[in-house]
Write a structure and sequence with these properties.
CATH topology of the largest domain: ABC transporter involved in vitamin B12 uptake, BtuC
Strand content: 5-15%
Number of domains: 4
Mean pLDDT: 84
Helix content: 55-70%
Strand order of the largest sheet: 4-3-2-1-5
Structural class: alpha+beta
Number of helices: 27
CATH architecture of the largest domain: Orthogonal Bundle
Largest sheet: 5 strands, antiparallel
Distance between the termini: 123 Å
Radius of gyration: 40 Å
Length: 641
């Protein structure tokens, strides 16, 4: 008896094993799987998908990738590896080689895009629970690219057992998006839509936009029960063209068409029963054409009254593709709130860009503010001191490969190099040209050209890289709209540090007191024992040194070339003049105004930055007409000089 029971158990075990055979399941619908079509493949794959066999995932992947072969003589399916000798056949259940064949003896099953979409949809439920996190993420990517109603149930079913918190959050979010579009009932869909409050990501906005897609319709009256979005605002010509396209009205005949039709039907000096000589009158031409139309020779003539009657008899409207009015109302309200938030975020993003640009202009201009504002020297070579600082940073990086250490070395070294160059320039050239602005402008312009040529001779005309440290790479992102690069943040911090240092230098040190004294009244300062020549030399050197540090900062994100300084000299002068000559706070205000103005103009015309700069210059010219001394004007005697 025991032997009989054991034999029965073995028999049942064998039957169970056979039932778990993928090849057997495929043979149930071998014809549909071997010659797949979008209409039949889903039903053919249903037993395979429902079996839950571990080898189903690989099968579906290879099936979609056109790696499945069928042997015509017995209809069995195999994977195959191509070799010089032909094909090595691989069993789809065990994954082991089971023989060889040639490509002529086997049929490679090629699936089209429609069939592949059905296979991928079936594959999703296996990939969502795959032990490999990369496969689960890939499945989520596939769903996000092409969401289908069939994806919702397996996605919801995979959330509970998801081990990764990050992937679980992503699944829940994607499930909410699919529920909003394909949920079973109105309440669930509205709840999913309301859960998007404050979410400004593109996929959420895209899902809501999909719910709110409309189709243009025309009817005699607005249909009851249809989810109407709005009535369409069309011109008379556009509306009648819609009626013609829908076959609801005959096409209109133009004057040129009438003339051609009449000319083609002239017989014995008559056309449409009227003499040709009378056709000079437009009304007669229409009568002749209508006569031809009555005989069926030409298309019918449509009078203006008929056009008006046809338009009055129809309404033109846009209807939501989504039939549920409650769902579209919720989606419309959610999208409006999100778009308002997006607009606010875009404003903040532009403001951050403007602040970043203002910090760059401030760094570039603060040195010029000191030399131009304090000394009254129009230094056209100021941009070349920025260029010298950038090249100093480049040279340091060639010697010190550690980018962080090289940056720490380059900043003070650039200050020292450009400070020395500024002192040398002041002693050799500028000191002989005080109070002679035209000669100063021409001399510094010549020095500017000479320094550019020297840089070309040393470094060549090709742009040189000034690489930022790894910790300055990337960006600080608040959301998918507001983001600012770490380099821009570092430049902003550097500008703030320089603002504090310069204010401390000018207001809390003896040299600062002497500089302010020389600025306000050089003669009185000299009578008090201050050497104006020494102060001018140090002031010019200080302004040049700051320009060198600005060059290192700017070179971290801009190209380092011999002409890079020319890109900032105009903005630097504008910053100083608009802000107020000789005033650090004025330079800060000028940099802020120009940065905001330029970014604002670029927002209206983002494809043309040259036009933005042109409009900005025109605005500044007008601004100076009304406030010639700048935003923060000097007070006291210095203001009258």
């Amino acid at each position: 008896m025991r032997a009989i029971l054991l034999a029965c158990l073995l028999c049942l075990t064998g039957l169970a094993a056979a039932a778990q055979d993928l090849q057997s399941l495929l043979q149930e619908n071998a014809e549909e799987i071997g010659d797949p079509s979008r209409r039949t493949i889903a039903e053919a794959l249903a037993p395979v998908v429902d079996s839950g066999l571990p080898q189903v995932t690989e099968f579906l992947e290879r099936y979609a990738a056109r790696e499945l072969w069928q042997r015509p003589e017995d209809g069995l399916f195999f994977y195959a590896e191509e070799s010089d000798d032909g094909l090595t056949l691989i069993d789809i259940d065990t994954g082991e080689p089971v023989g060889s064949s040639t490509s002529r003896e086997m049929n490679n099953i090629r699936v089209n895009a429609g069939v592949r979409g059905v296979i991928n949809s079936a594959l999703v439920q296996f990939q969502l629970s795959d032990p490999d996190a990369a496969r689960r993420n890939a499945a989520l990517d596939a769903i996000a690219r092409s969401p289908e109603p069939e994806h919702l149930e397996p996605l919801l079913g995979s959330i509970e057992e998801e081990p990764s918190p990050a992937i679980r959050t992503r699944k829940e979010r994607l499930a909410a998006i699919l529920t909003a579009r394909f949920g079973e009932n109105t309440e669930a869909r509205i709840a999913a839509i309301e859960s998007f409050a404050g979410d400004t990501t593109l996929d959420v906005r895209g899902a809501l936009s999909q719910i709110l897609t409309t189709s243009d319709e025309v009817a005699e009256t607005l249909p009851e029960g249809e989810n109407i979005a709005r009535e369409r605002d069309l011109t008379r010509e556009e509306a009648y063209a819609v009626l013609v396209a829908e076959g609801l009205a005959p096409p209109r005949v133009s004057d040129a068409d009438i003339a051609r039709a009449l000319e083609a039907n002239i017989a014995d000096g008559m056309v449409g029963g009227l003499p040709v000589a009378t056709l000079g009158d437009p009304d007669e031409r229409i009568r002749a054409y209508e006569a031809l139309a009555e005989t069926g020779t030409v298309p019918p003539f449509v009078a203006e009254e008929e056009v008006d009657a046809a338009l009055d008899a129809h309404v033109f409207y846009a209807a939501y593709d989504e039939p549920d009015e409650e769902v579209t109302d919720a989606a419309r309200a959610a999208l409006a709130a999100i778009e308002f938030r997006v607009a606010a975020y875009q404003f903040i993003d532009i403001a951050l860009d403007a602040l970043s640009l203002a910090s760059i202009y401030f760094l570039a201009a603060i040195g010029l503010a000191i030399t131009f504002g304090v000394m009254g020297v129009i230094n056209m070579a100021h941009g070349e001191f920025i260029m010298m600082g950038a090249y100093t940073g480049y040279v340091v990086q060639q010697i010190v490969p550690d980018y962080t250490l090289s940056l720490v070395i380059a900043l003070p070294l650039a200050f020292a190099v450009t400070f020395g160059a500024g002192v040398l320039m002041e002693r050799l050239v500028i000191r002989w040209l005080y109070h002679r602005p035209l000669e100063t402008l021409l001399a510094t312009f010549g020095i500017s050209i000479a320094l550019q040529q020297i840089a070309k001779n040393i470094f060549g005309t090709q742009a040189r890289p000034l690489t930022s440290p790894a910790w300055l790479g990337g960006e600080f992102s608040i959301n998918d709209i507001i983001a600012i690069s770490n380099i821009r943040i570092a430049i902003f911090v550097l500008a703030a540090v320089f603002l504090v240092l310069i204010l401390l230098l000018l207001n809390r040190t003896r040299i600062g007191l002497e500089v302010r004294a020389v600025t306000q009244n050089p003669g009185m300062a000299a009578s008090m024992g201050i050497n104006p020549g020494r102060i001018n030399m140090l002031t010019f050197g200080l302004g040049s040194g700051i320009a060198g540090i600005a060059g290192v900062a700017i070179g971290l994100y801009a190209q380092v070339t011999s002409e890079m300084g020319a890109n900032y000299i105009v903005q630097s002068f504008m910053t100083v003049v608009v802000g107020g000559v000789g005033n650090v706070w004025g330079t800060l205000a000028g940099a802020g105004l120009i940065g905001i103005l330029q970014k604002g103009i670029e927002w209206f015309n983002p494809s043309n930055t040259l036009a933005a700069q042109t409009y900005m210059i025109l605005f500044i010219i007008l601004f100076i007409q009304f406030r010639p001394k700048g935003i923060v004007a000097l007070k006291g005697r210095a203001a009258g000089d």
